[in-house]
Amino acid sequence: MGKKEMKKETGLGLSYKKDENFGEWYSEVVVNSEMIEYYDISGCYILRPWTMTIWEIMHDFFDAEIKKMKVKTCYFPLFVSPGVLQKEKDHIEGFAPEVAWVTKSGESELDIPIAIRPTSETVMYPYYSKWIRGHRDLPLKLNQWCNVVRWEFSHPTPFIRSREFLWQEGHTAFATKTEADAEVLDILELYRQIYEDYLAVPVIKGKKSELEKFAGGLYTTSVEAFIPNTGRGIQGATSHCLGQNFAEMFEITFENEKGEKAMAWQNSWAYSTRTIGVMVMVHGDDKGLMLPPKVATVQVIVVPVPFKDADTQSILDACSDTVKKLTEAGFRVEADLRDNYSPGWKYSHWEMKGVPLRIEIGPKDLAKNQVRAVRRDNSTKVDLPMANLAEKVRDMLNDIQKSLFNAAKEKRDACIKVAKTWDEFEVEKDVKTRTKGEMGAAKTLCSPFDQLELPEGTLCFASGKLAKKWSYWGRSLVLLHISINPTSI
Ligand code: 87F
């Protein structure tokens, strides 16, 4: 029997290995773990409950944090009128091919086609102009949780590059640049926490180069993650200082304390469901998904292991008691009491779904008043006495969370090469164009806020001029992975 047929029969197991065919492995994992269902429109995916519970956990964290910063929730319409979209034409120019339009209702053509938001600057800022009059109207800090549509033409990938995705977009306006600058970094720190503390994915915080920043803004900061299997860096989330460009365009002005007309300083910031794809790519293995406990829908799965002559009912009761006890202690825990699947099948099933900890209860465990705990990340097995189960489970889940992060960080750090010279490299723009082709263009990811020591007199690896700072460069060249280079730009 071929691997494919086997999979069909049991519904379990992956037919691709992560290190052999990463792309196919990824598609299979997101489907078999019941996160994603493919949809009949290319680039669109159904996000199943196993995905949405993760999204909700991240939402609850981030939403609570920004509310502490006095950011208010709003919701603006999905549709954009063409006039206002054009207003931003300088910045929209490069993005225009990705904008989707509604041109018909029923059989009749609309008089004026209507765009679907790819981002909401042009939707929101006309109203910022209306609502901001005096200095007392500032700061104005709004965030919305919504979907956006970008009609991508390159290879769609669940979570990573989809035509419709979910995100939060924050748009804020201040009287001073100082306040705007501070907020950019406060938000960036929350993005770092989402990746590192929740998804156990290490990121680098930094500033984008002039070439890679959002063209409509003053400067762009980002968190950059790394996917070991592709050797590529990936933008995790962005926090922009827009300066006064949009304020000028949309006339977002106010009367300051001195009674003078002044222009607002603006920021915008977003993270999307891409975060989930990065987490899957970083932690998953040949058994399937691997969920960090902080975001796992089910942190502990309890599986009864009945034995032929044993008292099945008391095993099932022990499982239910365990669920009750751990639930009361604050864990997300479920028992798989289905009688039409074997324990072995259930083990594989919950491993595929990435549940961090499995608790098995059989007749011997029952007799000894203990359970057997098996870690998803390293398969280690330990017997835990029932007496202080909740404490032990807490320790184990904390340890799994840390181990996932450390393993990912070690892998990433092993792929960072310090490159002080590269004769063939030209300055940034040339590097990007000259390396285009089958191996993928090399571009700067960011200049990290956390800088290595730059010895005096170090030259830029590309231009030969005096280097000003270190920058991360990312490309798909497997051997190079990402590099950090002294750059003059
Ligand atoms: C695609 C089509 C049309 C990105 C686009 O990063 C417009 C755009 O403006 C576009 N793709 N962008 C840049 C988005 C900038 C900014 N918007 C608010 C963010 C954070 C949230």
From TrEMBL:
Tagged with keyword Aminoacyl-tRNA synthetase: yes
UniProt EC number: 6.1.1.15
Residue stretches in coiled coil: none
Pfam families named among the record's database cross-references: HGTP_anticodon, ProRS-C_1, tRNA-synt_2b
Catalytic reaction(s) noted: tRNA(Pro) + L-proline + ATP = L-prolyl-tRNA(Pro) + AMP + diphosphate
Keyword terms, alphabetized: Aminoacyl-tRNA synthetase, ATP-binding, Ligase, Nucleotide-binding, Protein biosynthesis
Record-linked InterPro entries: aa-tRNA-synt_IIb (IPR002314), aa-tRNA-synth_II (IPR006195), aa-tRNA-synth_II/BPL/LPL (IPR045864), Anticodon-bd (IPR004154), Anticodon-bd_dom_sf (IPR036621), Pro-tRNA-ligase_IIa (IPR002316), Pro-tRNA-ligase_IIa_arc-type (IPR004499), Pro-tRNA_ligase_II_C (IPR016061)
PANTHER family in the record: BIFUNCTIONAL GLUTAMATE_PROLINE--TRNA LIGASE, PROLYL-TRNA SYNTHETASE
Name of the protein: proline--tRNA ligase
Organism: Dillenia turbinata
